[in-house]
Amino acid sequence: MEKTILIGREKEKKTLLEILGSKESEFVAIYGRRRVGKTFLIDEVYKEHIVFEISGLNKGNKQLQLENFTSLINQRLEATAKLIQAPQSWLQAFFILQKYLDKLPTGKKHVVFFDELPWLAKGKSDFLAALENFWNSWASKRRDIILVVCGSAASWMITKIVKSRGGLHNRITRRIRLMPFNLYETELYLQSRNIQLDRYSILQIYMVMGGIPHYLKEIRRGKSAPQIIDEICFSQDGLLYDEFLNLYEALFSQPEKYIDVIKALAQKPKGLTRNEIIANCNLSSGGTTTKILESLEESGFIVKYFPIGKNLKLSIYKLSDPYSAFYLKFIENSKSKRPGSWLQKSASPSWRSWSGLAFERLCLAHIPQIKHALGISGVYSEESSWRSPGKEEQKGAQIDLIIDRADNVINLFEIKFSQGPFVINKQYAEDLQNKIFAFRQDYSSRKSIFLAMITTFGLVENQYSTSLIHQSLKMDVLFEK
């Protein structure tokens, strides 16, 4: 059986190890989307220090959660103490936990891990009140407790725990938002499983499922990228064939409203403003929409881009989750479940068109790598995208990525996905010149404007590439650490 090792996560691991050396008790909140590896991270880093661990049961009521608690605490007590009966409340349960912890040897940190916290605390369970009492009246007064709470419902974790206005207000001492793997970590993860794929293949896979470790774990050795996608996404037994609804139902109450927003953004890859989302999804303009957008953003499904030099109300929301975009385009209404069906689809014009948008989405998720390739990692910048509806005398235009730098330079990026070196012809060169002109008209600035391109295999050098493009980046730069 393959041994899974902890890949990447250097920053998060460093934080968790620093906590072990703390001279006081710590209250740690870790959150991130479903199947991103939160539980695995805690179990791997703290495996020798966890003295109690419980995971909330999906759709389990208070009684079932307490019975689960009882079974788990009795496993810990079995060799040293009398077994307990199921408590009637979470307040009693935490008192039992407290007595158990009191008897543990001193001189080392004890990790108490509550996983899938939103499921433990849902309904009228009074779990949060008991957790608050446990921390405030007992654990925080000690020096040896690390209380870790974890949840996939990022907005719930932020509202109820990190930014709680109740008894847990300002009680969190550390917070970790765990994001999907980037391309560097994805390549490293596949290599750790002895899966040898070239970077163009890894790119295609990432454009479909992103950097979710649990999804990547489904990849089998000796398969091509189309075979992998076909097996995982289009086989009825494939993990991602019906993952979409499960994903949103596990994260959000009333998932239909969240899915409506995701579908609206999937239809408009260049993004929508808040008002456009409200109109497309028949939402109200109040707090409900704010909650939906903030929840999706915190969970990593959408990204908000602030317009350069414009009113913040014109901020653009874009779908950032690769799997959701791929599912809605190719899996949701797929009628073919035969082996090899994706090989046929991947040669279609719809895939070629969609892959350009998917590559753009991937690049926008790797801004630090792009800045490093430009040699401006240490320069403060703001990133955005731009679009102009055009006027009578001027065509509409849009720019995939803008990096507005503090050193008086603006980088405008064109992003192109192709199976070989990209050729700038006369027509495309005219389009690029139109974009630059339109941008200068729309955003009056004395900053220098440099046009850059990000492509899979680079540019074919010709008169247009030489005269127009200041910097050309290949896909390899996206795989940098």
Q: What tags apply to this protein structure?
A:
Trna Endonuclease, Chain: A, domain 1; 5-stranded parallel beta sheet; 21 helices; 12 strands
CATH architecture of the largest domain: Orthogonal Bundle
Content-based structural category: alpha/beta
What is the residue-mean pLDDT, rounded to a whole number?
90
User: How far do the termini sit from each other?
Assistant: 29 Å
Q: What is the class of the largest domain in the CATH system?
A: Mainly Alpha
**Number of discrete domains:** 3
**Extended strand count:** 12
The CATH homology group name of the largest domain:
Winged helix-like DNA-binding domain superfamily/Winged helix DNA-binding domain
Q: Helical proportion?
A: 40-55%
Please explain how this structure is put together:
- The protein is of the alpha/beta class and 481 residues long.
- It has 3 domains: 10-177, P-loop containing nucleotide triphosphate hydrolases (Rossmann fold, 3-Layer(aba) Sandwich); 180-365, Winged helix-like DNA-binding domain superfamily/Winged helix DNA-binding domain (Arc Repressor Mutant, subunit A); 368-479, Trna Endonuclease, Chain: A, domain 1, CATH 3.40.1350.
- Helix content is 44%, strand content 15%.
- Strands 2-3-4-1-5 form a 5-stranded parallel β-sheet, with helices on both faces. A 5-stranded mixed β-sheet has the order 8-9-10-11-12, with helices on both faces. A two-stranded antiparallel ribbon has the order 6-7.
- Strand 11 (448-455), helix 21 (463-468) and strand 12 (471-473) form a beta-alpha-beta unit.
- Helix 9 (199-209) packs across helix 16.
- The radius of gyration is 25 Å and the shape is elongated.
